[in-house]
Amino acid sequence: MDAEEARQVDITLRRLGIPGIVAPEDPDTPAGAWRVYDSPDIGTRKDTTADALAAVVAKFREANPEPPRRADGGPTRGFVIPPDEN
User: Fold this and answer.
1) Contact assessment for residue 24 and residue 34, using Cβ atoms and an 8 Å cutoff
2) Which residues neighbour 37 within 8 Å (Cβ) at sequence distance 6 or greater?
3) Which of 4, 37, 74, 85 is the right S-S partner for 45, CB 3.0 to 4.6 Å?
4) pTM over 0.85
């Protein structure tokens, strides 16, 4: 994620009470990629981006475990279209 996406992820984590430190992968290059870490200490921190994002999804599932429904109450349908192999 870039710096703007990282800012949004940080706000979301804080609102949902999910632990994590959002920081650039390389502290000397804040314009580069950002990740979620378990600690601000660069020497000992561990990347927890996948766990943090899974926790966000879990929070939203807790809030609304039912799949989305159409406004008119009808069933929601979808189609999977395989890619053209030609």
Assistant:
1) yes
2) 20, 21, 22, 23, 45, 46, 47, 48
3) 37
4) no
Phi, psi of 78 (to 5 degrees): -150, 165
Q: Classify residue 67 as exposed, middle or buried by CB count within 10 Å of its CB (0-12, 13-18, 19+).
A: exposed
How many angstroms separate the Cα of 52 from the Cα of each of 36, 60, 67? 7, 13, 22
- Give the mean model confidence (pLDDT) for residues 8-34: 93
pLDDT tens track for 27-52: 999 899 999 999 999 999 999 999 99
Tokens representing 9?
């992820």
| Confidence tier at 68 by pLDDT (50, 70, 90) | low
